[in-house]
UniProtKB/TrEMBL annotation, chain A:
Record carries keyword ATP-binding: yes
Species annotation: Nocardioides pinisoli
Protein name: Sugar ABC transporter ATP-binding protein
UniProt domain ABC transporter: residue ranges: 7-243, 258-501
Keyword terms, alphabetized: ATP-binding, Nucleotide-binding, Repeat, Transport
Pfam families in alphabetical order: ABC_tran
UniProtKB/TrEMBL annotation, chain B:
Membrane topology: Multi-pass membrane protein
Protein name as annotated: ABC transporter permease
Keyword entries, A-Z: Cell membrane, Membrane, Transmembrane, Transmembrane helix
Location in or out of the cell: Cell membrane
Residue ranges of the TM segments: 49-67, 79-98, 104-122, 131-152, 158-175, 195-220, 251-269, 281-298, 304-322, 334-351
Top-rank taxon: Bacteria
Amino acid sequence: MNDAPLLTMRGIVKRFPGVLALGGVELEVRAGEVHCLLGQNGAGKSTLIKVLSASYQPDEGEILWEGKPVVLSTPQASMDLGISTIYQELDLVPDLSVAENIFLGHELSTAGFSQRGETIRRTRELLARLGHSEIQPTRSVGRLSPAAQQIVSMARALSQDTRLLILDEPSAVLDQGEVDNLFRVIRDLTAEGVAVVYISHRLEEIRQIGDRITVLKDGSTVATGLAVDQTPTSDLIKLMTGRSIEYVFPPRGDAGPPTGEPILEVIGLELPGVFTGVDLSVRAGEIVGLAGLVGAGRSEILETLYGARRPSAGTVRVAGKELRRGSVPAAVKAGVGLAPEERKSQGLLLDQAIYSNITVSTMGRFSRFGLLDSRAERKRSAELTESLDVRPAGVDRLVRLLSGGNQQKVVLARWLLRECRVLLLDEPTRGVDVGARAEIYTLVRSLADSGVAVVVVSSEVEEVLGLSDRVLVVREGRVVHEGPAGEIDESRVLDLVMEGKVA
Amino acid sequence: MSEQSTSRDRGSVENTVAPSKDTVTVERAAAESGRGGGGLMSGSFGRNLGLVVALLLICAAGVVTAGDRFASVDNLLTVLRFASALGVVAIGMTFVITGGGIDLSVGAIVALCSVWATTFATQTMATDSHWIVMVFAALAVGAGCGLVNGVVIAYGKVVPFITTLAMLAAARGLAEIISERRTQIVTVDGFKDFFAADILGVPLLVIIFVLVSIGGWVLLNRTTFGRRTLAVGGNPEAARLAGINVNRHTVMLYVLVGLCCGLAALMLVSRTTTGSSTHGTLWELDAIAAVVIGGTLLTGGRGTIVGTVVGVLIFATLGNVFTLNNQDTSTQAVAKGLIIVVAVLLQQRLARNANST
């Protein structure tokens, strides 16, 4: 092996109008290692990746590849060196097949005619190498699960002789079993000498897979080359945030579990092929968590009781009144709010101002004869964003410009303004950094304390257990366990979701 | 409409400009000085500047080539009178496109409305009772066609392009059947007198266009209907999950453009004193061109009434300059194509500059 590290970045600076996105980043990646990049949202991780994939040109600093200076002027130049990036938001073409996606841009062809057989054969090989021979090369990518789509992205990276693989939050769309498989693939790759830059918010993953860590904060490297097994978690969190706590869940009320009439009652809800016989009741002030694997039907349950999907059987009652099936406006009118899983594609109007995202469900309140009083909208939104500490301030800012945590606060502000009685939260902290997570937990708890019935779905068991009063475990479309959150631990939940032993 | 100004061109940059504590103060300062009242002006100003430049260039060409024949109040009013009916359609089109749709059937609906309002039966009824019957006939037919479009699109889940293409064929065919391909002369004096009227020297048709434009601006920028249109066009799924009845809103958008077609048909009938199945031929393309060079995004989520109005004026002035110079319509069509491309290119550049300060 060459003595020089595979990749060295020195003093990388990237400015955008009015913002210093990177203010001197140092990074050194060796062949065959998993190098973890840690930092809060907005610390500069994404910008750094885009410099490496040559989407952006750095304003200052130098990049060395095997000790020799290189200029990454075009994405092609970066690819030619062997740098592949798998983004958080997968960049696949949904209507093309698996094989076509993998070889997109470097199709196998003779005289312009594509070599179909060879393409499919090579695709099979790549998928087998990744341990996913069950994926059909001819299937269109849009019909695959997110986890399988990620495998396709990785196969695409491998199809081009990758020497440095960048994974941006790869586990965000995966459940535990899929994460384990991903780690196996990563270990295989590093054993072959491929270097991996791994970005994640989840410290426990970094413990499992990482060799060394570089921590970014506010666009600068604050620590680099830390050995994973010799750096305590508390140190890492201190470096990232200046705080020394990981998850802080707000305390549950002293009065014990809330009593009284349930606000949300679900009886025998069924969506054919997805889930069946779901009963659920939530009282005012109570937080109920749904745990389970991705694909177990958790998100679908939420969407169905919100009216976004039409169930084949079952009733949903809010404060004793039955909701019309499959009608979102009816649910909203009855005081139900949803913070959807895919915040960007389902929750937000990205190209609109913060205030109009907040008031979109309450517009009637700011209008007379249909005429909007946008001064009142801005004023009320500003009060909310201030109390939720949305940063940066300013309600005319486009939502697209906010970080994940702040975008989630905007969605919550929408339902706070609506004063809803039932709040459904689907993956409330996905893509949200550690600091903002604690704020969101506190916010959800204080909403419950004010009398809102909350249902939380999360892939992170720790989050479900820590935040909820009561937990339902869902497996393959059925509720297999229900009980107080305090009486069940993480390993028991994992046992239930994997084995489905009915308690 | 101005608040959305900065988004698309900077897309790639924005994901990474998430705030760190050090930059917050800087950004806040920038936000306070740049946005608010002043920011609104500068945003739309940047976007519309290219259009205004194009309009001025055409006017300059008019003055140079036709002199006083171009630069007179009479000629100005003529241009406006001819632009008004198409302008009303283009305002309706702005809403549909902002809401993420498209309507190819506007020209055909105009023809059908003009024919329906001038049949022997309608005109007899109008003579017997009141000319307002013709107005109701045109508006009802327009709204009816829009309703069919909207219901098929929203509830039948047929894409707008195909639905309105079908309506384009069907409505013009129906207009031909009803009129037996004959030009129907308007004989109702009350109708003719009313629409031919001037107010302080300004033709009523022009006044209608101005009123529809102002109404459209208020509707798009100051009402819940307009805000919902932006939401539905920008992200229909998010709009639906926020509790907006997206299907119902979509239907309303097509009914709105249908009503605009009915009104435009009345304006056209009064100007030509005829109803005909050939009225409004190719207006769908003129209307879409005006909307798009005006700066409304074809993908939905951002719309500008001011831009559409200037877009309509550009094409109308262009036609006028060519006519005054005795050029045929073919040359005019070539110039029109060039203008569309140049205006959109110019506009993108200027918008980028205006945003990157």
